[in-house]
Amino acid sequence: MRSKLGDRVEKAARVALATRKHVTVIDVLTGLRWVQGRHVDQWRQGRADSLERLAAVDAARMTEAVACLREWAEACGLSADEAAYTSAGRDRRPLRFTVEGDDRLERLFRVRWLSPDMSESARRRLEERDNRAPDLVVVVPLEPWVCAGCGAASGAALDDSRLIMEADQPYCLTCSDMDHLEFLPAGNATLSRRAKKESGLSALVVRFNRRRKRYERLGVLVEEAALARAEEQCLADEEVRSRRRERDRERRAGEDAEYRTAMAERIGALFPGCPPERAAAIALHAGQRGSGRVGRTAAARVFDEDAITLAVIASVRHQDTDYDALLMAGVPRMTARDRIRPRVDQVLAAWRDGRPKPR
Asked: How many CA atoms lie within 13 A of 274 on its CB side?
């Protein structure tokens, strides 16, 4: 009989497998909520010596999850290979999962499980990605910091207070020999891609968004001459790319409409008492592209029951309770949620039973 942890691991793994045709330990740890996405970003940036430092559990508990993942993957007939994890800092060092860094244990954490339905071309792309060094990542920090090279404090002599990690220490762009690069703001994907391709040295620039709890791309650092060449290329085929963008917008609009319809149907199946127009409104709000809401998560895109339920709960919380009024009155968020939880449970229970929302 499988343990409760095994059931949770399977659920997280199935979502990843349905989304990408392969499963990694990172997928499981984030699915279990033991590691947040922002923690994975910090780890990949080289801002922690191991993922265990940022996790809510220790290496022993993480190892239990890895064992559960292996048991499930082998039972499902998935094939194993080893994924590469390299820092996006200047040192490009191999990333560690555990504080101790035991080689045998680290190899277990690097195992990646592939679906038998995964195409050969998709497998090759995974291998190519592993063989390619990750993009250097420059961070615009939200907190004060001091350069480990020159000792300058942020906001003093540092270039826009941008840092890059090396050997777990922050360095300014001057000390890391990157102060000659030009900053290209995000917004023109084609120009950014071409400028990166033309530039011998480049780096992504990111900043943590506290509201969305994730790192967001601000732009890219590239060589000045590379940017000029990329701009010339973009001017030469602007009309062709404009027509392509319009076709892409129409395609995405159609895909979004189909997704929202399918989500509304899934809401109706889980909550038969939810009025169809309300289900459609929940799907429209939660599934908005680029919103970062629960409807755009990997779990929601495969119509996972928990993810769909969270979207419904969010709607009930704001529309059928005094939650917003409590927040406006200064009640702490978690206290407000505790107060309105009985009403949320009452509405959900009625909808699950096929009854209308109680007054």
From this structure: 28
Mean pLDDT of 171-182: 92
Rounded Cα gap, residues 210 and 208, in angstroms: 6
Nearest-angstrom CA–CA distance, 359 and 348? 13
Mean pLDDT of 197-216: 91
What 3-state DSSP class applies to 189?
helix
- Picking from 84-93, 96-105, 154-163, which range would have the lowest pLDDT averaged per residue? 154-163
Dist CA 24 CA 10 (whole Å): 12
How far is 136 from 201, CA to CA, in rounded Å? 9
Dist CA 351 CA 273 (whole Å):
4
In contact, 65 and 9? CB cutoff 8 Å: yes
For residue 222, count other CB atoms closer than 10 A to its CB. 25
10 Å CB burial of residue 145 (0-12, 13-18, 19+) is middle
Closest of 241, 190, 242, 177 to residue 220, by C-alpha: 190
pLDDT band at 300 (very low <50, low <70, confident <90, very high): low
- Phi first, then psi: what are they for 117, rounded to 5°? -85, -5
Within 10 A of 147 (CB to CB), how many other CB atoms are there?
21
Task: Calculate the dihedral angle through the C-alpha atoms of 285, 289, 294, 297, rounding to the nearest 10 degrees.
Answer: 160
The pLDDT value given to residue 270: 94
The Cα 4–Cα 182 span in angstroms is 52
Q: Give the Cα separation of 245 and 354 in Å (integer).
A: 44
- The two tokens of residue 110 are 């690097």
pLDDT of residue 156: 47
> What is the C-alpha separation between 87 and 44, in angstroms, rounded?
5
Which residues lie closer than 8 Å to 119 by C-beta, 6 or more apart? none
- Calpha distance 298→18 (Å, rounded): 9
In the predicted structure, residue 145 carries a pLDDT above the cut 70: yes
Q: Kindly report the pTM of this predicted structure.
A: 0.71
